[in-house]
Design brief:
homodimer, about 400 residues, alpha+beta, six-stranded mixed β-sheet, five-stranded mixed β-sheet, 11 helices, 15 strands, about 35% helix, about 25% strand, globular
C-alpha cells in the first residue's frame, strides 16, 4: 500500500472537525487540561473501552450515549488531571452536567457529547471549574493544525510528548484523510481497548462499519502493548467519521485501503505511547513465533513483558536470556523447555532451551539502543504475535512513588 | 497451641542432622557458596517444587531421586551463585557427578544425595570447583548451631540476612524439634512450591505422611507470598525427618501439633523471605475477604500484589487506593465495583467502590511503617486469604538492572 502518504512532520487534517483546548485549573501545574472536538452533522462513531471491571463514569456514560444515538456523535469533551472514577454518584452527575452544558453551548443534545477523563482515581472531579471554562473552550475552537495540537496537549498527563499520526489516500472518487491522537504514559496494558485515543476521518461510513474497522485496527496495535501491566479504568478508543470527503467505504478496494490506513495510524500511536511510557529508556519489540494460537502467543508475550526481572535486565541492557526463558516457562502455556529458542537482535542466544555460544558484547550493544528486538520461537505451531513493551527503570518507580502526585 | 516454644534468638536443633559449608569459588565475592546436610539412616523425605515449565536440572534430579528411593534421603548438597539451569546436558551431568562424588565421600548411593542450586540461569555450573571442594565440605560437618548458621549463609544469594526458624514441642512420649532454613530475595512468586527451603525434624514419619504435612504447611505460607511476581526455575521445599526423637506422628494430637509447628516455621520463613526481598522497604499484609472461593481471593491478591502502580505507591507510602481498586478490577474476577471496600491499617479508605472521608495523614503514617496492613472486602462470599507482598523501590531496579551481576 504505497499510496498512503505519511511524513513525520506533516499532519493531514480530516475535513469537518474543529478542536479547542483550555486551562480549567484541574492540573495544579496550570497547564492545558480541557479539550473539545466538534464534528459536523451526520458524523458516525464507534468506540472500544477498557475491560477492567472497575470503570470510570465517562466510560459508562459514553457507552450509553453511543447506544442511545445508534452511533451518532457530534462532540467530545475530555479533561486530564482527574479520572472521574470511583467517586460514586458525584462522577455520574459530573458527566451529566458537563455534557448538558457543552451541548447547550454547541446547540446539541447532551447525548451527542462524548465525555472522557484521565488522571487520578477516587478524587471528586472539580465540575464547577470545568463548567466555568466551557464558554471559552467553545468560542475558541478552530480547524487548523494548531488547534489540533492544543487539543492533544490538553489530554496529556505524565506524557512528555504529544502523540499524533495521520495518513491520506486517494480512493476512486476522492481523498480520504485519517488522523489520530493519543495520551498514554502509565497504567498501560490495554485489554481489548486502550488509553485515550481519538481517531478522526472524513470518510463516510455507518457506525456498524466503523465498529468493525476499529476492532480490526486495535487488535494488533493497542491490544499488543504494555508499559507496566496495569489496565486502566478509563481506556477509550473513539473513531469519528464526518463523511466530509464525500467518499463512502462501499467498495472492496476503498475498505481495504481504509483498514490499512487505520492500522497504520493505530500502530504509530501505539508505538508513540510505548516509547513515551513512564521512565522508559528502551522499547522492546517482542516477537513470539511458532505458537499454537495467537492467544497463546499473546500469553507468552505478556508473561515476558510483565516480568520485573526481564524488564530490569533490559533497563541494564543485560542480555540475560535466562530470565526471559524463566518467564516463558511461567506463562501458563505448556511449552517444552527444549523447544524454546531466544534471539536478541539477529543473534541466537538460547538454542532449544539451553545456552549457546554468542557474542555477548554485540547482544549488549543491541540492547543499548532505544529500540530493541527480542524474538522467541516455541516450536508448537504457526501462530505468532508482535508485542511492544518497555524496560523498567528507577525513574518509573520515582514517578509513581512520589506521594505528592 | 501455646505449647510451642519459640524465641527469636534461640535455635532448636533437631536430632540427627549435621551441617557444613565451604567456599567453592562459584561466587565472585569469595563468600560461602556450597552447603551440605547429612541425615542419619532411616531419614524420610518429601519435597514440593516449582510449577514453572522451565526447571533446573537439580529439580528434575531431586524429584527423580526421591521417587526412586521411595522418599528416603540421606544428604542434601546445595550451591549458590549458579542455578544449574538451561545449559543442556551439562546441567544433568553436573548433578550426576556432584551427587556421585558426595555420595562416595559419605558412603551413600548417588540417589541418596539431593542436589539444589540457586543463582544465574544459563551459565555452565563450574562442576570442577565443586568437586574439588567436596572433601573439605564433608570433613568439616558438625551438629552445632554454628554449623547450621554456616550452612544457611552458604545458600544465600542477594539475601541480606540468613533465614531460620525453629520450634520444639512435647508430645506424650517425647520432644519433637522442627527447624527450617531458607533463601529468598528475588524471583519470588512461588506457585505451589517455593524458593530454596529446607526443613528438618527429628520426628518419625513415613514419606507419604511428610508429603501431606508439607502440602498443608506450604499452602498458606510459601504459596501466599510474592516479591516481584517472577516464578523461579529452581524453587524447592524439602522436608527431612530423621526419626531421632523416637516420637512417631501416629496419633491425632501429635499430628495436629506437628502440622501446627510446621505452619509456624513455614510462616516465619515466608515472612523472613518477603521482608528481605530485593530493595524492599515495606512488607504489606494483604487480606482479601468475602471472596466466593479461596482461589478467587488469591487471584485478587496476586493482581494487587503484582500491580506496579500499587507497588510503587506503597514505596512512596501513598494511600492511593484508586490504584488498588483498578488492580482489583483487572484481576479477572467478576467483582462488582460498588461492592468493593478497601482498608489501610484500620481505616476505611474506599467504601463500596467510591471515595469516602478518611484521615489521609493517618493512612500515610501507617504506610510508612515497615509492616503495613491492606484489607479488601468483596461482598461475594465467605472465603478469603492473607498474602504477603512488598513495595517496589528504585533499589529493586538498581539491583536487577546492574549488568555486571
Amino acid at each position: 500500500m504505497t499510496l498512503l502518504r505519511r511524513s513525520p512532520g506533516r499532519v493531514y487534517l480530516p475535513q469537518g472537525f474543529s478542536f479547542s483546548a483550555a486551562c480549567a485549573g484541574i492540573k495544579a501545574s496550570g497547564r492545558l487540561d480541557l479539550g473539545l472536538v466538534e464534528a459536523p452533522p451526520g458524523t458516525t462513531a464507534a468506540a472500544v473501552f477498557t475491560q477492567n471491571r472497575v470503570v470510570a463514569a465517562p466510560v459508562e456514560f459514553g457507552r450509553a450515549a453511543l447506544a442511545a444515538n445508534h452511533g451518532r456523535m457530534r462532540a467530545v469533551i475530555v479533561n486530564s488531571g482527574n479520572a472521574n472514577c470511583a467517586t460514586g454518584d458525584h462522577a455520574y452527575l459530573a458527566c451529566q452536567q458537563i455534557c448538558r452544558a457543552a451541548g447547550r453551548l454547541l446547540g446539541l443534545q447532551s447525548e451527542e457529547v462524548f465525555p472522557s477523563s484521565t488522571g487520578i482515581i477516587g478524587v471528586a472531579l472539580p465540575t464547577e471549574k470545568i463548567l466555568a471554562t466551557l464558554a471559552t473552550l467553545v468560542s475558541e475552537r478552530g480547524t487548523t493544525k494548531k488547534h489540533l495540537d492544543q487539543f492533544v496537549r490538553a489530554i496529556m498527563t505524565t506524557d512528555t510528548r504529544p502523540k499524533l499520526a495521520s495518513v491520506r489516500f486517494r480512493s476512486g472518487k476522492g481523498t480520504i484523510t485519517l488522523a489520530g491522537v493519543a495520551k498514554g504514559s502509565g497504567m498501560i496494558h490495554p485489554q481489548l481497548a486502550t488509553m485515550l485515543v481519538y481517531l478522526f476521518t472524513d470518510a463516510a461510513a455507518t457506525a456498524a462499519e466503523l465498529k468493525r474497522f476499529l476492532r480490526g485496527g486495535c487488535e494488533h496495535t493497542f491490544n499488543c502493548i504494555s508499559v507496566d501491566g496495569d489496565t486502566s479504568t478509563n481506556d477509550t478508543v473513539l473513531l469519528l467519521a464526518s463523511g466530509k470527503s464525500g467518499v463512502r467505504l462501499n467498495n472492496k478496494s476503498t475498505r481495504k485501503r481504509f483498514a490499512h490506513a487505520l492500522s497504520e495510524v493505530c500502530e504509530s500511536l501505539a508505538e508513540q505511547i510505548v516509547s513515551d511510557g513512564e521512565g522508559v529508556q528502551h522499547v522492546i519489540r517482542l516477537s513470539i513465533e511458532q505458537a499454537r494460537s495467537q492467544k497463546e502467543a499473546l500469553r507468552v508475550a505478556r508473561a515476558v513483558a510483565h516480568s520485573l526481572l526481564v524488564k530490569t535486565a533490559w533497563a541494564g541492557a543485560d542480555p540475560n536470556w535466562g530470565r526471559i526463558l524463566a518467564a516463558v516457562g511461567s506463562s501458563g502455556v505448556p511449552i517444552k523447555q527444549d523447544k524454546v529458542s531466544i534471539f536478541i537482535g539477529s543473534q541466537l542466544v538460547c538454542r532449544n532451551g539451553a545456552s549457546c555460544r554468542f557474542d555477548e558484547r554485540r547482544a549488549h550493544e543491541h540492547l543499548v539502543k532505544p529500540g530493541c528486538d527480542v524474538r522467541i520461537t516455541l516450536q508448537r505451531g504457526r501462530a505468532g504475535t508482535t508485542f511492544l513493551t518497555t524496560d523498567l527503570t528507577a525513574d518509573y518507580v520515582r514517578i509513581n512513588a512520589d506521594y505528592s502526585t
